[in-house]
Design goal:
3 strands
């Protein structure tokens, strides 16, 4: 399964950039975001398996 991860601006909450990753990469990205206080939005990519 693949996910789109969008990095959000700390002040306005608007999307800064996004990337599509496989499920194995999500955990590391979430841990990194939590460690740095970065705001992210994660959603599954439609039609991906």
């Amino acid at each position: 399964m693949r996910f789109e991860i969008t990095r959000l601006d700390d002040v306005t909450g608007t999307a800064v950039d996004s990337t599509v990753v496989d499920a194995a990469a999500v955990r590391g990205i979430v841990q990194q975001a939590a460690a740095t206080g970065q705001r992210i939005h994660i959603r599954p990519v439609a039609g991906a398996s």
